[in-house]
């Protein structure tokens, strides 16, 4: 099973969680590639979508894990740009990994639903999601919990 972890991280929080996930997946013997979404120019957080330097090719992956922070109650502009431009996700299993500052119901839950819709429209098979609330005294535990949630989604399906 080839796994592509495609993500954007504005402040480094999402990257930190992705790094932990990729480390754990590699240790379990999975074949994992990490791809960072890069906007063409510096990101303004108020942007809805932005042009990307490169639209990643996902054709070689069986599973995609899409990581994004929640900005202003929505997914990051680079992630939206990626999802809007990808022509198909047919045959791909998709999971989501989100980081957010506010309670889940203040944007993360809605972001997951929008991501599900975009992936479903392109033929992706939705596995599920995990998220980390950044403003928490139990942040490390939440990161490890989100990583375990994603690993469980992957093993339950395969």
Task: Give me a quick take on this structure.
Helices cover 36% and strands 25% of the residues. It has 158 residues and is of the alpha/beta class. It has one domain (2-157): 3-Layer(aba) Sandwich (Rossmann fold).
Write a concise keyword list for the protein shown above:
158 residues, alpha/beta, 6 strands, Rossmann fold, 6-stranded mixed β-sheet, 36% helix
Detailed description of the structure:
The protein has about 160 residues and is α/β, with parallel strands linked by helices. The protein has a single domain (about 1-155), classed as Flavodoxin domain (Rossmann fold), CATH 3.40.50. Helices cover about 35% and strands about 25% of the residues. The protein contains four helices and six strands; from the N terminus they run E-H-E-E-E-H-E-H-E-H. The protein has helices spanning about 15-25, 75-85, 110-120, 140-155; strands spanning about 1-5, 30-35, 65-70, 75, 95-100, 125-135. Strands 1, 2, 3, 4, 5 and 6 form a six-stranded mixed sheet that branches. Helix 1 packs across helix 4 (about 140-155). It is globular, with a radius of gyration of 14 Å. The model has no long low-confidence stretch (mean pLDDT about 95).
């Amino acid at each position: 099973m080839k796994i592509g972890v495609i993500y954007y991280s504005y402040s480094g929080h999402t990257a930190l969680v992705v790094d932990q996930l990729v480390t754990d997946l590699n240790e379990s013997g999975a074949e994992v590639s990490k791809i960072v979404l890069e906007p063409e120019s510096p990101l303004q957080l108020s942007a809805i979508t932005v042009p990307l330097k490169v639209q990643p090719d996902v054709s070689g992956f069986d599973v995609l894990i899409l990581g994004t922070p929640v900005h202003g109650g929505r997914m990051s502009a680079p992630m939206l740009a990626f999802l809007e431009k990808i022509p198909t996700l047919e045959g791909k299993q998709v999971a989501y990994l989100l980081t957010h500052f506010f309670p889940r119901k203040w944007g993360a839950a809605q972001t997951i639903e929008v991501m599900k819709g975009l992936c479903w429209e392109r033929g992706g098979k939705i596995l599920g999601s995990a998220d980390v609330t950044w403003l928490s005294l139990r942040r490390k535990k939440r990161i490890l919990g989100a990583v375990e949630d994603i690993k469980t989604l992957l093993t339950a399906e395969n």
